[in-house]
Amino acid sequence: MSPSDSPLPRKEFLRLLGMLGSAAAVTAFLQACQRAGLDPTAIPTATLRTPAATAASTATPEPIDMTEATQTEAPSATQTPTSWIGRVALVRTADRAAGVRQAIDLLGENLVRGKDVFLKPNYNSADPTPGSTHIDVLRALVLKLREMGAVNITLGDRSGMGDTRKVFQARGVFDLAQELDFATVVFDELAAEDWVRCDSPGSHWKQGFYLPRAVLESPAVVQTCCLKTHRYGGHFTLSLKNSVGLAARRLTAKSHNFMDELHTSSSQRRMIAEINAAYSPALVVLDGVEAFTNGGPDQGRTVKPEVVLAGRDRIALDAVGVAILRLYGTTSEVSYGPVFKQEQIARAVELKLGVDSPEKIELLVEDEAGEDFAAQVRAELLKG
């Protein structure tokens, strides 16, 4: 028997079944094998991979063309097709640094090689993780990006619950930047000309919103977020909500307050998704070693899912994150209805920012612990 004809290990077989999307698809696949008199675990790997999954492996959403001082639109359907598979690497671990490295390796994609990278962390406040990005995550991510061939790395953020410069100082960002030789940008200190007006079709923003020119012109944007709820109207703050920290509060001291507009709007969760239409990330890492299942974004009831996620599809990542929050018991808002009916996610689907259904999410795992947890997550994703 040749290597290509040998039975698949249980781990690989379960991973491949996961790519089929739904329980119905798996059942149909197994029944077909039975009718044909085949042992499904003996089928070569290549015959189990679906065409959609194969196409997704090579699909690379194109960056939005941002011209100076012009309004921008969301990616078109050809840039991020809703037929692609949202690949999310899932690693069970209490070791954040190891989890970051393993999740990125498991994802198996490198869109930063030879490029300058803009890194967006979660420093909305100076509160301990999951209130803010853990220094171990930041260190591991910077080192991993360098290993992947990133050239220059610049970190930037805007705190919503504190002075950004003081938050960076309190969380050790400046010290780490000096140690690992990466640049930092405090968005609050940017001049008006350093911002670019953006918008999206059918936008709920009255005057659009503004993102830093340095972010929009970066060859590769990477972000790292936490796993938590949001008590100020966002309901949850994962990868989509993390992008709010890219947006300007004001352009000048007396100009329109965009964050007041956001947080007082009944369309807040839709507006969150619309910010994400202005850029496509090369990589997102979500730290779910600890999570807030209520309260947030600064403090809340803490649980320990001990999971690190990595991917590029923000819809898929947030859907998986919401499913994990539900598994640990969360707020009525986050628990209500199907995951894809959550307003942040539903609006992101309308804007074609990633997958349009839970069946199109592919969970990548590397061990038994990951497989077992992924099965629970998928069951939660598929609930009506």
Describe this structure in words.
By secondary structure, the protein is α/β, with parallel strands linked by helices. It has two domains: 1-49, no CATH class; 69-381, LarA, N-terminal domain (Rossmann fold). The chain contains 16 helices and twelve strands. Helix 13 (314-327) crosses helix 16 (368-381). The longest helix is centred in the last third of the chain and has 14 residues, at 314-327. The N and C termini lie far apart (44 Å). The model is unreliable at 1-83 (pLDDT under 50).
Q: How many separate domains make up the residues?
A: 2
Overall form: globular
| Number of helices, counting only DSSP H or I runs of 4 residues or more | 16
CATH secondary-structure class of the largest domain: Alpha Beta
Largest sheet at a glance? 10 strands, mixed
Q: Say what the CATH topology of the largest domain is.
A: Rossmann fold
CATH homologous superfamily of the largest domain, by name? LarA, N-terminal domain
H/E topology pattern:
HHHHEHEHEHHEEEHEEHHHEEEHHHEH
Percent strand equals 15-25%
The whole-number mean of residue pLDDT values reads 84
CATH architecture of the largest domain: 3-Layer(aba) Sandwich
Helix content: 25-40%
Would you tell me the structural class of the helices and strands? Answer: alpha/beta
Radius of gyration: 21 Å
Give the low-pLDDT segments: 1-83
Distance between the termini: 44 Å
Question: How many beta-strand segments?
Answer: 12
In short:
The strands form two sheets. Strands 1, 2, 3, 4, 7, 8, 9, 10, 11 and 12 form a ten-stranded mixed sheet that branches. The protein has a two-stranded antiparallel sheet with strand order 5-6. It has helices at residues 10-18, 23-35, 45-48, 51-58, 96-107, 135-147, 164-170, 173-180, 213-216, 239-242, 258-264, 268-275, 314-327, 332-335, 343-350, 368-381; strands at 86-92, 117-120, 153-157, 183-186, 195-198, 209-212, 220-230, 235-237, 283-292, 302-303, 307-311, 361-364.
